[in-house]
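Obj: model holo form, ligand = fe (iii) ion.
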Amino acid sequence: GHVAWFHEYWTLRHAAGRPPLIDRCDRLWDSSNVAHATRWHLDLPDRAGTFRYMADVLMRQEDTLGSGAGDEARYFYDLSIRHEDMHVEALTYMRQTLEYAPPPRLGSADRPRAGALPGDAVVPGGRWRLGSTADEGFIFDNEKWAHETMLAPFRIARAPVTNAEFAAFVDAGGYRTREFWSDAGWTWREQRGAELPVYWQGKHDGVWTHRRYRIVEELPPHEPVLFVSWFEAEAFCCWAKRRLPTEAEWEAAAVGQPAADGTRLADMRRPWPWGDEPPTAAQANLDFAFDGPVDVAALPGGDSAFGCRQMIGNVWEWTASDFLPFAGFVADPYKDYSQPWFGSRKVLRGGCWATSARIARPGYRNFFTPDRTDVFAGFRTCAI
Ligand code: FE
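Output (holo structure tokens):
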């Protein structure tokens, strides 16, 4: 209902000046104004009524678009479609949180078992243009605008941290060793009583297991570690004598290229890590291409110029960067998208297997509070 309301609010009411289809709709579904605690007690339409409302909104959108959409109206369709994409992903991780059945099979069940991909890519330093430009199509307000930063040379893992690598941290007593954790991280760990990643369920006959939706399975050793908080990523890095990349470093490793002499970053960037073409399932695990995450060595066709794999898709990657506005930030019409969250969140990049390709552009900045363990988040590390 909320997704349909968002479509209606922006495309039909805001952009086309139509009256609301349901009188009380803002009281039910306006997430900016309906507090979470009250959402359990609303007089929501039943399932059939909700579907009717959704169909009604879609039909009216099609009627409106039949007479053509100007650029300004188009913006709100682009926004509403992406908002729906985000909720599709959120519904998917909610099924994991609530121990529901797996989602219906949408992609290939044959997830590539390609193994591990150890080692670092070497990225030269230089000028890096962080942020997006007006010619990139639909962008969110927090990407505006492109601005120059300077990067020192760095080394970044070719792949995200795997379950097997994270298990070594657990086995080394990582969750019980105070010195690996920041003050905020240790407070989080103690409050949660965290001894393992949230869905890990201990070892059976020496093999780690985890809960996937409502099924307990062996933990796939070479898939990226998932459902770890930023604090757990930070503690792992401390133990491994590594660090998280900044968002600018992550982006340079993903879509940067070496200048001709190899000593610095070139001015040109690639639209995608592998080149100009939009993603396919040979390059990026997006849009439910597979039935979940794949091993970190899979999809070599998606390698960046520096040899980093799966920068786009498979697993969101925590970065070291706080979610902050770029200089000159001005909120777009959906004012609550970014502005309320600056300063309290960490930036994640790259998208995951349940993210749409529309969202998971290299410049897209996702953001969550550092305590979250319910989202499809992992991380990759840099050498110190
Ligand atoms: Fe929403």
